What we know:
Strand order of the largest sheet of chain A: 1-2-3-5-4
Number of domains of chain A: 2
Oligomer: heterodimer
Largest interface: A-B, 16 and 14 residues
Number of domains of chain B: 1
Helix content of chain B: over 70%
Largest sheet of chain B: none
Structural class of chain A: alpha+beta
Strand content of chain A: 5-15%
Largest sheet of chain A: 5 strands, mixed
Distance between the termini of chain A: 83 Å
Order of helices and strands of chain A: HHHHEHEEHEE
Mean pLDDT of chain A: 87
Low-confidence stretches of chain A: none
Number of helices of chain B: 7
Shape of chain A: elongated
Strand content of chain B: under 5%
Number of strands of chain B: 0
Helix content of chain A: 55-70%
Low-confidence stretches of chain B: none
Mean pLDDT of chain B: 87
Amino acid sequence: MERPLEELFIVVAASAFFLLMAVGIIVLFQIYARRQLKMKLEKQELESRFQAELLKTKIEAQEQTMDHISKELHDNIGQLLSSSKLLIGITKRSLQLPMQSLHDAEETLALGIKELRALSKSLNKEWLAKFNMIENLVAEVSRINSLGAFQASATYPSQIQFSIEKQLILFRVIQESMQNAIKHGNCTQLAIALEDTGTGLRVTIVDNGNGFDPEDSSRHGVGIINIKQRVAMLGGKVHWSSNEAGTSVFIELPY
Amino acid sequence: MPNSLFTHFLFFYLEPISYFLPTVFLLYHSRSDKRARIKVLAAYYFIATLLMLKANTFNLQYHDNIGDYRLLNLFTGLCMCFYYYTSLGNRWTKSFALLFGFTTVLIFITSSVLLPNPRSLDSYSSAWISLAIIVMVLFFMYQTISNVTEAPLASNFDFWFVASQMLYHSGSFIIFLTYSYFTKKIQEANLYSIENRDILMQLWNGHNMLLFICSVMICFFVVWTRKRIKN
């Protein structure tokens, strides 16, 4: 009678042993999987932090370049144009009957100098930081209208609830979008609307240009990539709607 | 009473088969996995196959194959010492692997040359080998969990080999101590009856079955990990 009991005990003990081993391996797998997931999440967070730092560095480099161009425009080209205007003025005064073309040249130079100064200011971060975004936007719209070939308009709330840094980034986004419309879209009309939604700011830029394919990323230039990156940096979203009648850029930014 | 042919097979032939199967699969695996420790494992299982064939078939008429088992213990110690020394990363765990290798050599010299007669030393030496390997398996498992990588654990052949080692040596440790216990009792009573012989035989059959299960596990995971890596 004892033998069957002994054999049963051995079978039960062996089964328990194998079960314990199997449970051990399963537990090990679970622990490994959990740690692997944690590692992946940490890696993703590090990568996104790295990308954010990289973007910040890139934007700083772009601002420095624009500052440099702004200074060169003002100090170098601006001075050359001013000197040319001065020489024409001297020539005019030395002639008894100055030609109409000289008057026209002097006026054209004066306009060119004025526009150059406006462009130089729009590129200069230190200058822009003296004003809020709305003032900068109004100045930029005036500058574009003064070129004569475009009709730009802007509607905006009384104030924008962003820090000066964020306002500057937003201004660059709007500036880039306007430049894209003028250079690539061949538009003649441009409307910028800023709307306070309560929880954030909605920016709409509409032009009557040729349009483009927003889905075809192979044809997107650096400008569109810059816009996407800057809007992402502000924690917002951007999308384009475009056809042959024109392009609309929609930007949603949370406070 | 179990079928005597089946018991005969379990007792004499299952052990060399259990060493032969991993030899074939590890040689196949070493074609893609060029690491030295895989080649050493394949060599170990090959040597073990030859030793067990000699111990269980050719030496039957002499009924004394203890020298073959002592050699097997020596090769197990040296091979596992190399395997775990190359697998473990920590200085202390590597030192333990070296110490383990050194002690198996010492035990071999003691039991084969200096004190060949106390046969109980052989069960204790086998138990020590199993216990040391269990400890090194735990070191390996701890190291694996502490150094998580992006590669899935299921595709890691070393993990599965070590898991099979854990399974085999945990069971063997208990079997060797039990074997030693019953052998001592029989020797003290001076009563080597058929019943007592059956107890020892069943213990050894249990050991061989456990060895076979672990060998099949190694063979299965050689194929499985290769498939996973290919996919």
